[in-house]
């Protein structure tokens, strides 16, 4: 099993992208994800990463060993 911190743990086929790597359309999707209502926007954009295939959202704090 290949585990790579940049690969989505949910679908396993796409890479996780940081906010800066998202295009405008993708950013709009991220703003509408369920986590948007639970977390601070600024914090999400700094800490979280997203899979642009299934829109799994990962939090850096959970991923750090
Ligand atoms: Zn995924």
Architecture overview:
- The chain has 65 residues and is of the alpha+beta class.
- It has one domain.
- It contains three helices and three strands, in the order E-H-H-E-E-H.
- A three-stranded antiparallel β-sheet has the order 1-2-3.
- The longest helix is centred in the middle third of the chain and has 8 residues, at 24-31.
- The protein starts with 15 loop residues before the first strand and ends with a helix.
- The mean pLDDT is 87.
- Bound molecules: zinc ion.
- Zinc ion binds next to loops.
Question: Summary?
Answer:
By secondary structure, the protein is an alpha+beta fold.
**Strand order of the biggest β-sheet:** 1-2-3
Order of secondary-structure elements: EHHEEH
End-to-end C-alpha gap = 19 Å
Number of helices: 3
Structural category is alpha+beta
Radius of gyration, CA atoms, in whole angstroms:
11 Å
Helix proportion = 25-40%
Give the cofactors and ligands.
zinc ion
The count of strands amounts to 3
**DSSP strand (E) fraction?**
15-25%
The average pLDDT value, as a whole number, equals: 87
Overall number of domains = 1
Instruction: Report the biggest beta sheet as strand number plus sense, adding barrel if it closes.
Output: 3 strands, antiparallel
Shape: globular
Low-confidence stretches: none
């Amino acid at each position: 099993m290949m585990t790579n911190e940049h690969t989505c743990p949910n679908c396993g086929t796409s890479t996780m992208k940081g906010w800066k790597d998202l295009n405008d359309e993708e950013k709009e999707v991220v703003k509408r994800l369920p986590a948007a209502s639970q977390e601070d926007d600024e914090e999400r954009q700094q800490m979280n990463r997203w899979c642009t295939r299934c829109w799994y959202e990962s939090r850096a704090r959970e991923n750090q060993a």
